[in-house]
Amino acid sequence: MTPNKFKKLLTRTHFSKDLKNLQIGSDVRVAGWIEDFRDIGKLGFLTLRDVTGAIQSVLLGPNLEKAKTIPRQSSILVVGTIKPTKSREFEVEVSVKEIHVYSEAIHSLPIDPTGRIESNLDNRLDSRALDLRNPKISKIFVLRSQLLKIIRDFFILRGFIEVNTPKIIGSASEGGSNLFSFDYFKRKGYLAQSPQLYKEQLILSLDRVFEIAPFFRAENSHTVRHLNEFLSVDIEAAYLDYFDIMDIIEELVKLTLKHTIESGYHADLPNSESKSFLDVVSSPFPRLSYEQCLKDLGEMDEKVNFGDDLLDSSLRKLGEKYNSFYFITNWPLDLKPFYIHENDENPLLSKSFDLQYGYLELVSGGTRQHDVSKLKHRLQDQGLSIDSFTNHLKTFEWGMPPHSGCGLGFDRLMMVLSNLPNIREVVLYPRDTSRISP
Ligand code: AMO
Predict the structure, then answer these.
(1) Does residue 271 surpass a pLDDT of 50?
(2) Distance from the alpha carbon of residue 11 to the mean position of ligand 1, in angstroms
(3) b or e along 258-272 (b: 16 or more beta carbons within 10 Å of the residue's beta carbon)?
(4) Which is higher by pLDDT, 396 or 280?
(5) CATH of 3-103, one of 3.40.50.720, 3.40.50.970, 2.40.50.140, 2.120.10.90
(6) I need a labelling partner for 418 at 20 to 30 A (CA). Which of 172, 307, 310, 334 fits?
(7) What is the reported pLDDT for 76?
(8) What mean pLDDT comes out for the span 325-331?
(9) May I ask the CATH class of domain 130-426?
(10) What is the rounded CA–CA span in Å between residue 2 and residue 348?
(11) From the alpha carbon of 366, which atom of ligand 1 is closest?
(12) Domain boundaries, the chain
């Protein structure tokens, strides 16, 4: 093969979405995979899909004969000319002059990537790369990518600096449990559960930081909302309190909702008959105190004592009453990690919040304890060893400003925005207790 011919074979001129904007008679080369092929005698119709959509191509003579021999889902290039079409599905079609096969698909395939024959989620995840050829699936990940950009831009615009904290760590960041450990050159290493300690240390100098990164929890949870590796959007800011952080998060979540609606990814707010997506964007998220939640639950015959955590059953009840986004604030201090600040009015409570969507917790955050002696007491109260936090605690003696922050479970937000019931649907290669590959 000459270098020129090689180049010609590999280059395409357009993605499928671009064809409708071209003039009739334009020459195009479009690459993709064969989704469908209909042979109606002297004529054949081949639907070629790429990540941006699908085109109809029309084949005659030798090209038609060749197309008959190429298995569906093979990777091909069609070279042809734009023509008007009678099809209702497409705005134009390509009259094919040449057809090149890059790589044949070997049948039978493990799943049907057109989605016409449904497969269960496990089978789809086993063949995820092929599953993503289904446009209903790939659009979740296009949305994911767009939202991550929106989130990055949002924080950068507000003076936050993007940081990258280590994922291999020498001691726990969120207390001792739920840590994956491994051999690290004859010592013990751990996978970070969150960037909590680092993000707090960084505001000493950088003032406002954010990180978008995977974190790891060795939780033996078999639910539709837990993974052992999840993507977290973490922020930390000096001189802000937890109400400021709630304001920031509310604005951010509304922005992601707005984008989801405007880009046509979602027509209406999931699980909410009465409120449209736009209503949610234009009205404030309710902010309920933990104690208000206990009252509400009491009225729903679900008795929870002060100091008890809100378990799944209680959150599901609350989620019936508050079926959209809402904050739960001022949790009992004992329920919160050592770094959360006590409440000024009542030291049994904390300056903390969770953002819920119905029963689902999306965000957790609060004002941090920046008084080092109180921080040490809190560590002791929670049965944690001060010695293993020496490196962290010393930074609090270098002029630590008051600060607040939160962590947003991005995969969970994606579940809500794309109205999917299982977190595994919105993660490319989910890691759970029974899945470590592909
Ligand atoms: P927390 O442990 O509540 O707080 O985590 C923050 C958010 O991360 C998401 N999340 C998960 N998502 C999927 N699978 C999991 N196993 C999982 N665990 C947590 C949730 C949760 O609300 N350092 C604090 C945050 C802070 O105060 O800044 C923290 O990690 O959406």
Answers:
(1) no
(2) 44
(3) bbbbeeebbeebbeb
(4) 396
(5) 2.40.50.140
(6) 310
(7) 97
(8) 98
(9) alpha beta
(10) 78
(11) 27
(12) 3-103, 130-426
